[in-house]
């Protein structure tokens, strides 16, 4: 099954109970110093840390997400079916129980040749959104790691609607990871971005 069938056609969630792969901004206030000092996400939100060995999603890193998000690891036999470039899906973070219809999916590129820029470029070029525009690459940090983030938008012909995309790639000592924000509605996409910042700020090597 092609990956884009999941992300831009029928949206199959890894976290859908027994149907595991069934078909396989921030508000501005105050000065620049204030905006840098105060994170966009709610620091009082109860969180869970994922990624440790033995957890639902064992990853090369750990980070915090809201406690009411659901997590699911991609079965090893399905990982190669859900790929972008050299990156295979390994974990899905489902925000729907937290009130946002969207996901943050984690992909792992085990190759030694990829770079963060190359990895996220593949997410852009292999995306089937039509009329892609406002493609913007930025250097950023994810925990202790240097990263490349890309955002853009386009037209989802399946849903006949505008859609936003954000991907972040970064290399760890145990492999290159890509965080993929996947929400059909631009409003839901933007609602996930503060939580993406929470992941970036709380991320540590496993």
Structure write-up:
With 206 residues, the chain is an alpha+beta fold. Helices cover 21% and strands 38% of the residues. It has helices at residues 3-8, 32-37, 76-79, 116-125, 186-202, and strands at residues 47-50, 61-66, 70-73, 83-84, 87-94, 103-109, 130-142, 145-156, 161-172, 175-182, 204-205. Strands 3, 4, 5, 6, 7, 8, 9 and 10 form an eight-stranded antiparallel sheet that branches. It has a three-stranded antiparallel sheet with strand order 1-2-11. The two termini are 31 Å apart.
Quick structural overview:
21% of the residues lie in helices and 38% in strands. By secondary structure, it is of the alpha+beta class.
The residue ranges in which pLDDT falls below 50 over 5 or more consecutive positions are 1-12, 17-35
Record field, number of beta strands: 11
Which shape, going by the Cα principal axes?
globular
- The class by helix and strand makeup works out as alpha+beta
Please tell me how large the radius of gyration is: 16 Å
Order of helices and strands: HHEEEHEEEHEEEEHE
Largest sheet: 8 strands, antiparallel
Strand percentage lies at 35-45%
Provide the helix percentage: 10-25%
**Straight-line distance between termini:** 31 Å
Topology:
Layout: H1 3-8, H2 32-37, E1 47-50, E2 61-66, E3 70-73, H3 76-79, E4 83-84, E5 87-94, E6 103-109, H4 116-125, E7 130-142, E8 145-156, E9 161-172, E10 175-182, H5 186-202, E11 204-205
Antiparallel strand pairs: 1-2, 2-11, 3-5, 4-5, 5-6, 6-10, 7-8, 8-9, 9-10
Give the key terms.
single chain, 206 residues, alpha+beta, 8-stranded antiparallel sheet, 3-stranded antiparallel sheet
